[in-house]
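User: Structure tokens for this complex, please. No commentary.
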Amino acid sequence: MVTNTISVSETPQVLYALRRADDALILGHRLSECCGHAPTLEEDMALANIGLDLIGQARALYTLAALREPSLEDGRANTEDTYAYLRDVGQYRNLLLCELPNGDFGRIIMRQFLYSAFIDPYWRAMMKSSDAQLAAIAEKAEKETAYHLRYTSEWVIRLGDGTPESHARMQAALDFLWSYTGEMFDTDEAEAMLQAEGVIIDASVIHDDWRATVQTILDRATLTLPQSAWMQKGGRSGRHSEHLGFLLAEMQQLPRSEPGAVW
Amino acid sequence: MNKTLKATPPVQLWEVFIRSRSGLAHKHVGSLHAEDAELALQAARNLFTRRGEGLSIWVVPSHLIIASDPSEKGMLFEPALSKAYRHPTFYNVPEEVGHM
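Assistant:
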């Protein structure tokens, strides 16, 4: 069996599913890197659980994409695994926010908070999708992301309104991550058709809700919202930071070198 | 912005009780460390309900649980074993009363 990079035919439905699945898989992978390294046993479990939730969402979305694109060019079946393990950096469609290296516990928590504050209302809105399968995925995912938002909010508050050191680290994390948050709300022509059909929502409608949640929690955390409006972009079209290549090399090394390996 | 110096709150040990889907009573399932009640609840959810064990969580700071001394087991509990008259088995419940 060949382990070369596959090519994907990105119809609007497939592209949409891959974008959301890649967000979940890459962020889930970053969280898996915390396993065994968190500050306490309880947080080790918590972060690993969040990672598992996200990888579960990724699996559901990749499976959905594979239903829309059942075969590869050489006739092999397309599966969640081919999408995850046999696409290269330029084919990944995740947000840049998701692929950033972990940093300290504060940055891990802040990143997860900023993402969860978006993805929870997003999935809640997607529960009304005209596509029954997407609506079902959204309903299940929303319960998970609601908890992620609650968990990370509590930690943002405690670390922000904490010791001078924890406060400084949280502010530094927020300042670093801020320019990566705008990409969450971007939309493009590829999604316009699906929006018109009610299959997906326009992510930009989530922005006010997100901003209100973030402001409320940051106020309680005594943290200052950055003022800059300039935002990083590129992930949605496969233009990634230097970090994704290393991440994929680690994640894909085994399936690519041992094709057909099973547990 | 004024930032008064705060110490990290002390970590406490908490006992965790879970009521399962088919149960009526919360059962003790273990313990965890957390700085406050909300974190303790979240940690209990993360650690002790991963496999669908329960529907309800109680967390109690361990120092608030007052327990009987195991070495006093004999004095406290053995006298009750030989007192059959304490059991509700010596009268007939009329049918009209129903299941008690």
